[in-house]
Amino acid sequence: MKNYEHGELAKEILIGLANTGLLVACLAMPGLTKIIPLFDPKNVKEKYRVNRTLTSLQKNKLVNIYTKNGNEVIEITKAGKKKVLEYNLDELKLNVPKKWDGWWRIVMFDIPESKRRSRSAVSRKIKELGLYPIQKSVFVSPYLCKNEIDFVGEFFGVRDNIIYIKAKEIEGVSELKEYFRI
């Protein structure tokens, strides 16, 4: 088992549960859950750490732990799945190809004032992804980003307020090519 920083083990457990759906774990000792396929704890200290992390996840209602047919079942909750989406959002990056395909991707949004927090979060995340702001709610990228923009829009519940355009020509191309180094 690798040396996890604070919160990393919980993140790995949640992502593992999200990817497998249900995880049936055998009981190695009474009250001690052992998740060998995911973390391979080699000693009592590591087993305790995994168990403590699972207990914390259960306390925070991110997982349900129960016994079924003599096996302990660990199931991710709806809140746990949402937390995994947050992890995915934090790690979201654009795939930058070696050669540009000559197309510009323009992302525009008009998110109502009633969803101000979502609007700010979408704008911040689009900037983090590396898109260039050409207006307050209009961004451009030379790289394919539709899936990432769809994910961001869905995550913040404003996908219907975002428009994705693919264009061959755009004004200010020399500034954009310099910014993106293409």
TrEMBL record:
<keyword id="KW-0479">Metal-binding</keyword>
<keyword id="KW-0540">Nuclease</keyword>
<keyword id="KW-0812">Transmembrane</keyword>
<keyword id="KW-0472">Membrane</keyword>
<keyword id="KW-1133">Transmembrane helix</keyword>
<keyword id="KW-0051">Antiviral defense</keyword>
<dbReference type="InterPro" id="IPR021127">
    <property type="entry name" value="CRISPR_associated_Cas2"/>
</dbReference>
<keyword id="KW-0460">Magnesium</keyword>
<protein>
    <submittedName>
        <fullName>CRISPR-associated endonuclease Cas2</fullName>
    </submittedName>
</protein>
<dbReference type="InterPro" id="IPR048846">
    <property type="entry name" value="PaaX-like_central"/>
</dbReference>
<keyword id="KW-0378">Hydrolase</keyword>
<dbReference type="GO" id="GO:0043571">
    <property type="term" value="P:maintenance of CRISPR repeat elements"/>
</dbReference>
<dbReference type="GO" id="GO:0004521">
    <property type="term" value="F:RNA endonuclease activity"/>
</dbReference>
<feature type="domain" description="Transcriptional repressor PaaX-like central Cas2-like">
    <location>
        <begin position="98"/>
        <end position="171"/>
    </location>
</feature>
<dbReference type="Pfam" id="PF20803">
    <property type="entry name" value="PaaX_M"/>
</dbReference>
<keyword id="KW-0255">Endonuclease</keyword>
<feature type="transmembrane region" description="Helical">
    <location>
        <begin position="12"/>
        <end position="32"/>
    </location>
</feature>
